[in-house]
Amino acid sequence: MRHPTLLLIAVISRIGSGLAASLTVLYVTQFAGLHLRTVGITLTIATAIAVSASIWIGHLSDRLGARDMYIGMFALQAIATGALVQVRSVPAYAIVVLALAVADLGARSSQGAVIHAVVPSADRLAVRATVRVAANLGFAVGAALGSLVLTVGTPQAFRAGLLTTAALIFCTGLLIFRLPRVPAATSGASASWAVLRDRPFVLFMGLNGVLNIHNTMLTVALPLWIATRTNAPHWMVSVILVVNAATVVLCQLRLTRGTDALPGAARAARRSGLLLALSCLILATTSATSTPVTITLLILAALAHVTGEILESASGWSTSYALAPPGLIGQYQGAHAMGRGTGNLLGPTLFTAIALPLGPTGWLLTATLFTAAGLLTPVILRRAQPAVPEHETATS
User: Fold this and answer.
1) How many other CB atoms are found less than 10 A from the CB of residue 45?
2) Disulfide: which of 73, 159, 239, 295 matches 106 by Cβ 3.0-4.6 Å?
């Protein structure tokens, strides 16, 4: 790995994310006195605002320098995480979760721009794939630490866990200083919404967002489907999550190969859509099978899903780099984050209001949506013009 610092950043920050994910909602509902429905609505609104600002955040990354923006996003996240222990009202919670949502999306777009700047073009996708593997491992460690806090279960333990998360995020921000400084863009950065004039990329962004609904499929739809519409034991939810994480760790690098140019990215998106659709078709059959068959089918569906997930990520990384002109790297990364964030926002409604209530028919409709997004992406990318390559930038 040419930049081990990027791995350290990914591991440590995601340990914090895994710890926070285990504790935050329970803390504000059990100890801060907020109602669960209020928390859900506030989270949705804050995420929507942050997603809508993703392009502007990416633009700031171009104007200020990607590394400095990356550091700033981790500083904001550390402060907001630490402030959670002081939350006692809905307005205070809204401010904190909006800061966290902005920091999360800003860090993602800044990370992509930093990798573009400090890693040679031939290595970028491999580095992003390796960073994603490291992030998954870190998140698992953080979730395990969170389970220890949950076992203790006291307010003091929760506050200690959240403050530990803030400290980990702060340390991650300090690590970023080890990366080469990325100068502010000298060309293109004055056009704060230039990415929206790139019609092929905007269309790709939307289709990639549709494919990214796979996140909600894993975390919302599958657990609900297993618990309410199949005869599989509920522990199959944990099995599927483990299968997902293990497959990402073992296969992300291998499946990312060959996607570093637009033709490879287009093929990856097509295969992603078809594999996600296959996962839906398999799931559609699991409401009418015996328990052993259901378990087998669920594992097969999970494998098809995670393979599609890996290919979707690789396609998005490659395209957001290939089409971004010099001076607009952060903005294109922000737009990519916006498309994915939109998919995350729409996913819960799609699955809980349409797909799951309709049963097998709902999965068939979802499969059609994934198939359409996968097949249309190569058509869109054939019209796209790759940006003129720029000279390689500083490395450490």
Assistant:
1) 14
2) 73
The per-residue pLDDT for 3 is: 76
User: pTM of this prediction?
Assistant: 0.87
The per-residue pLDDT for range 231-266, each reduced to its tens digit, is 999 889 888 988 998 899 899 999 999 998 999 999
pLDDT at 258: 92
CATH number of 194-382: 1.20.1250.20
Record the tokens describing residue 147, joined without a space.
């389970």
What is the H or E stretch that residue 201 is in? Answer: helix 199-211
Residue 338 and residue 152: Cα distance in Å, rounded?
38
Residue 83 tokens read as 């402030």
Q: How far apart are CA 183 and CA 254, in angstroms?
A: 33
Distance CA 262, CA 157 (A): 49
The answer to whether 15 touches 168, Cβ cutoff 8 Å, is: yes
Residue ranges covered by each domain of the chain: 4-176, 194-382
Q: Stretch 168-197: mean pLDDT, rounded?
A: 83
Which residue matches tokens 């928390």?
39
Half-sphere exposure of 168 (CA within 13 A, CB side): 25
Give Dmax over CA atoms of the chain in angstroms. Answer: 63
DSSP 3-state assignment of 198? coil
**CATH 3.30.70.260 for the 4-176 domain, yes or no:** no
Tell me the residue ranges of DSSP E strands in the chain: none
Locate 301 and state its tokens.
């569906």
Domain 4-176 matches domain 194-382 at the CATH topology level: yes
pLDDT tens, position by position, 330-376: 999 999 999 999 998 889 888 988 888 999 999 999 999 999 999 99
Q: What is the pLDDT of residue 387?
A: 73
Q: Which of 106, 240, 216, 86 is nearest to 163 (CA)?
A: 86
50-54 contact pairs (CB < 8 A, 24+): 50/98, 50/101, 50/102, 50/104, 50/105, 50/341, 51/101, 51/105, 51/337, 51/338, 51/341, 51/342, 51/345, 52/338, 53/102, 53/105, 54/105, 54/109, 54/334, 54/335, 54/337, 54/338, 54/341
Task: Report which of 174, 179, 107 is spatially closest to residue 330, judged by C-alpha positions.
Answer: 107
**Are the CB atoms for 139 and 15 separated by under 8 Å?**
yes
Residue 391: pLDDT band with limits 50, 70, 90: very low
Please give the average per-residue pLDDT across 164-169, as a whole number: 95
